[in-house]
Amino acid sequence: xxxxxxxFWIVCxxxxxxxxxxxxxxxxxxPDDSWQQVRDYLLAPAIRDSLIxxxxxxxxxxxxxxxxxxxxxxxxxxxxxxxxILLVLPxxxxxxxAAYVSTEAREALIPWLVEIRNRHGVDTFLIxxxxxxxxxxxxxxxxxLYPYVFLxxxxxxxxxxxxLAETARTLGAGPLRSFFRVSLPLxxxxxxxxxxLVAMExxxxxxxxxxxxxxxxxxxxxxTWFQLGDLESARRLAAWMLLAVxxxxxAEIRLRGRAGFDSRQRASDPREKPGPVVAALCLLSCSLPVxxxxxxxxxxxxxxxxxxxxxEEVGPFLRASWHSLSLGLGVTGICLLAALVxxxxxxxxxxxxxxLTARTxxxxxxxxxxxVVAIALFGTAASARDVLPDFLAxxxxxxxxxxxxxxxxxxxxxxAGQLTREGLDAIPAGYDHGARLLGxxxxxxxxxxHLPLLRPSLAAGAILVFIDVLKELPLSLxxxxxxxxxxxxxxxxLATQGQVFACAAPALSIIAIGSVGLIVVELLIWKRR
Length: 529
Fold this sequence. Notes:
globular; mainly alpha
């Protein structure tokens, strides 16, 4: 295990290196005039728009996810098994694709906006138009991000079953009161974890907010860097973003205290047979998020594909598909190997230092928006140019694909690490003692006993990491090599060029691959757990 421990510290150092380098930039000098311009004219509107959008999306995800998770867990209504799968599929739709498919619906309301301007003046028109953009953006983002909260809430509701709710019913509490007084408070840690993921994805998004013209922090980073040509101010802004996100994450963990949730269902409690009114509410609460977050984008893209007849150039489409598949498979393999090393060392060296280091490395990468990770890697590459030998520096610094793989690994390692850790925690410690009594070393015990039992968790982690890499946009836009398009960057490029209908083929490819993976995870892993 000595070699594994060495690899453990190397992996943690690589995961923490970009974040540490970026945070260290807070103590370096930046030209006052450049940073003051960003602070005076860009920072306040960016923070305001980010807070408004994040709070709106989180509130809408709660409204979409919590009732659906409660009904699927508690009641046996017609179509429940089908909805338990369909409610997860919006996770396969990239947020920027959801923004693009709303173009026609938003343009249909332009005559109404013009009428408001003619009747009530320009000031009223500007306010209504801004609310109109924010509302559409919040709804579309919530419609594709609510599965994070849905999965967490469903696991929490299933973990304590319906027996506590039935106990509350016998004490005189109605169904609605037992939900708010018993089930919902017990699910608070799970909901907080799901909402944190939703907030991070909202802050990370670039394609959707840029399409709607909303200047959140991520577009402000792009604007500071590329339009103003000020990398140092962009790096300073990225560092403050990262610090704020990490403080918010640790504050949430601190406020939660020792509260947690167990995703393993303790008992197969029978589900209730709902009456006609409750059954109608079940169908409505489950079908509405699916219709907005999955069916609407799918049908709209299908209509665009029929109009365009497919991609105009097959060659670029095939190259983008190959780049996405190879990049996704490579990053997924690296994340799984790193997750196995870290979880194995944590398993056999149960001390606080290893556990805290591994968890910090996971949180730091996943909490950082993609644009922030990209800027951090640029600083890391610049430092590597000064430290590495002359014969090695050009290979590592100029190889943009290497830094893209590095950034994606640092960003999405937490997904594989979390699922691998959960799977390993479910294996009883007695297996370790039995293997040691039979003469196996810790490494042999891990390879012969733990690794076969981890296959479902590894499969789930691999699929989810692959889907995240397939949908990633900001990191790929910044770190990709010249003339290296993925399905995501090609979709974004077509939309920014005004060819919205032409982006149907790559967008449908992303959704199709992601949907198949999510169905496999739902049927084989989440359902079993």
